[in-house]
Amino acid sequence: MKKSDIVRTLLKNRYRHAPLHSSATAYAPSNIALCKYWGKRDQELNLPVTSSLSISLANKGSFTELSLTQNPNDVVFVNGQQLDLNSSFGKRLQAYFDLFRVKSSLFFETNIKTNIPIGAGLASSACGFASMVMALNALFGWELKENELSILARLGSGSASRSLWHGFVEWRAGEQSDGLDSFGELIADTWPEFCVGLLIITEAEKEISSRVAMQRTVTTSPLYSAWPLKVKNDLSTLKRAIGSKDFRLLGETAESNALTMHATMLSAWPPVFYALPETITLMKKIWALREQGFMLFFTQDAGPNLKLLFLEKDAEAVQREFPHVDIIKPFKQTSKE
Over the stretch 177-189, which tens digit does the pLDDT of each residue have? Predict the structure, then answer.
């Protein structure tokens, strides 16, 4: 099964429709996985080995403005800088657009504006592809359902399947080989007091991409065989914690899940190690604060930066202990400005 087959299946008789508009704009929030996605059962379709669960970052994400252009090539700007289409991301983006061209002479000018660091473990590609899919949906007038948009976003970046919504989202791994049962779904529970704090240690692009690190871990880590069961148990626990508003249970489970993912990376060969000395120092500080009774936890994705998990009542204390933290309230800060 190819990506183009999935697109044709989802769009059906709309596949060859010309765009209804000359331009369209969409926004998608970034998301941070509390139960991680790490490992693919299908590289082509970005199908995960396990399900995962995330929290959106509200007003941290990407705007995408998509316009038709008379140029004989695509033109892409990221935060005002023109993207080299011969770069790895440029080629990846053009291949994605190829899935939706109704004719070979149709080209796009794409302006992506994001307010999070790119390639630093903050799901910049997730919100980028999610906003792109929503802009394409508006441009062509497909009127697709959210689960269908999630599948199309997944074809660009796996984590993008979770970036169509505000709040907690579960990405179901699915079982079908065509991936039509693998998409994100919004979890109905809200938690207004829930906060995420971004601790940005560096905005530099990571040396090993998530895609490369993920595949290396799956194929070489002797610990990876235990990962699916760990995820299954953590996912169930996190959903229970969200439903009962049990913050300690959520924090302990999310932190354990992240540390386990990084342990599998470290046991891969060659080892994958994203942490910087500052990352370790901050982890130790968080653990020390927790020993003092501070209800504070962290999660870490494929990069050195940490994300703090805490409740709104502790926001001032968190800001005091970590002066440079960027505090996000996912259920209160839904403004995109």
Answer: 999 999 999 999 9
The CA radius of gyration of the chain, in Å to the nearest whole number, is: 20
Topology match between the domains 3-186 and 194-328:
no
Annotated domain spans of the chain: 3-186, 194-328
pLDDT tens track for 104-157: 788 999 999 998 877 655 558 899 999 999 999 999 999 999 999 999 999 999
Task: Please count the other Cβ atoms lying within 10 Å of the Cβ belonging to residue 282.
Answer: 21
Quick check: 336 pLDDT over 50?
Answer: no
Q: Are 74 and 82 in contact (CB under 8 A)?
A: no
CA angle 185, 190, 195 (to 5 degrees): 105
Q: Where are the alpha helices (DSSP H) in the chain?
A: 3-11, 88-98, 124-140, 146-156, 210-220, 227-244, 247-266, 277-291, 315-321
**Residue 290 binned pLDDT confidence (cut-offs 50, 70, 90):** very high
Q: Which residue has the tokens 């703090």?
A: 308
| Alpha-carbon distances, residue 49 vs 42, 45, 178, 260, 298 (angstroms) | 8, 12, 14, 16, 24
> What are φ and ψ of residue 292, in 5° steps?
-85, 5
Taking the whole predicted model, whether its pTM rises above 0.90 is answered as yes
- May I ask the CATH class of domain 194-328? alpha beta
Inter-residue contact 55 to 170 (CB < 8 Å): no
Q: Which long-range contacts (CB under 8 A, 24 or more apart) does 229-233 make?
A: 230/257, 230/260, 231/35, 231/36, 231/50, 231/51, 231/52, 231/257, 232/50
The CATH label, of 2.70.40.10, 3.30.230.10, 3.40.50.720, 3.40.1190.20, for the domain at 3-186 is: 3.30.230.10
